[in-house]
Amino acid sequence: MSHEVVLRVLGLMAVAVLVGSGYWLAVRSMFPRFTERSSQRWSSPLFDLFIGLLLGVPMVYFGRHMADSAGGQVPEVAGDLLVGFALILGLIGLTGLASYIGHGLKVPGEDHHSWKATLRGGIVIGLLGGLPIIGEFVVLPLLLAGGLG
Length: 149
Hints:
By secondary structure, the protein is mostly helical. It contains six helices and no strands. Helix 3 packs antiparallel against helix 4 (73-104), helix 3 packs across helix 6 (134-148) and helix 4 (73-104) crosses helix 5 (114-129). The longest helix has 32 residues, at 73-104. The termini are far apart. The model has no long low-confidence stretch (mean pLDDT 84).
């Protein structure tokens, strides 16, 4: 493996950790009750994954189909917006997973800093999603589907 590949992988992981953690901290600060409910829902992740796949696959398929076979600019943009909407909903749902993972990595004496759990969980999710091949094509889509559920 050449040094360019190693640097690309490390850069991808760094971006995933920084951007993802910042996004999940922002969602946690804006919607704290939603994050707590979402964190409790992640206690049964297979059910959330099933619901997310049930909702997400048709949304993404229909959006891609509308964008690819569009006869004009408006349907193409509408299809891209539908796919983007599904991705954003999945990322918002992943805030609960970041919080759930972070609570499992809890350090004694930080009961007053609930955002630290989300930060730790966001770093873990960013490292998983930033893996070169498995993270991009397997882990990240499954996590987004679970977040959508």
